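User: Predict the full complex structure for these chains.
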Amino acid sequence: MTALDRLARVAFTFVMMNAAAIAGLFALRRGRDVWTSGR
Amino acid sequence: MKTIFWLSAVVVVYVYAGYPLLLAAWAGLVRRRPRQPADVSTWPAISIVVAARNEARRLPRRIANLREITYPGPREIIVVSDGSTDATAAAVEGFGGDVRLVELPAGGKPLALNAGVAAARGEIIVFADARQQFAPDALMHLVAGFADPQVGAVTGELVLDAEERSTPSTGSSQAGSTGSPQAGSTVGDGVGLYWRYEKSLRRNESRVWSTLGATGAIYAMRRSLWRRLPADTLLDDVLAPMRAVLAGSRIVFEERARAFDRASVDSAAEWRRKVRTLAGNYQILAQEPRLLLPVANPVWIQYLSHKVGRLVVPWALAGALLASAALMFDGWLYAFAFIAQAGFYGLACYGGWSEHRARTGSCGAALTGVAR
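Assistant: Here is the predicted structure of the two-chain assembly.
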């Protein structure tokens, strides 16, 4: 794996996390559907 | 527009760089000496609560792990079956003795934990999931922290196999038993790096006073500090410990207490987990608004900088991108900022595409997946 690939994956994870924060706001009412434990 | 750009930039830089640096400096000034139980007779009785739904396959190995690992004091294991429709009950009943089963109709993990704690007899409750495995000395390290009466909860360290591969010093024979990501897996690397970053924050927050939650896979609490969780709670491992903090106790991070798991091997699973976590962070603000009051929350500034900051940053990122686009022709700085951000998001798209390609094994399938 190249350094660029590694950097790209970190960038992807960062963007995904931030998009998840916005999605999470709208997904709150579906909370009971998700049972799996968190870390 | 310039105000929006600079305000957004300050928020992003403070949350991801300024706060960690300030916290590290603050932690460097604090010296706390951890206490240990004086002898074996002072190790408290513990109750290990495992909430499970349809975990008949994993439970035998999990219960064996919890029974075999070292702990000098008395222990009991309570498995709460939350509406299981498989052979979960049979898997638990086979152990007998110190392993008890509580069966409930399906109601969700928070209600299962409430029932587990209600059935517990130990002074300290240890929370564990069915999936992970504890290190042989995890319970001792986890419970030793309670020798300090200010400590209300202790959270351990969840070691992901993606970290194990990239951090040789954390090697453990047990980590391998949890399996390794698929060959060419890509998400694990990004997630592993993120997880290490989070752990460094947690370590320093613990040193300063208290962490801002616990790791659901491995943490312990004084039974006296437990308050029943609302049924719709998304982040039980943040709400329960933070209530202890609001009551004046500390949550400490004990990194020698380790559980092992594997990182999500695909972005879809990681996406669902992150949405749930972030939704939970919003929910907790409604469940415990006292967290936002400096007079009620002893870790108010940390909570605002870390947890609330993560909820604000996405909006700040959008603000910085749009403002720099609008200001592109107002000066080279804004043009550079816009190009740098566009480059970053392009890189992230490549990272997502690369991850998908690695999972599907072909460029054509990857392109189809991205288009979907």
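DSSP finds 13 helices and eight strands in chain B.
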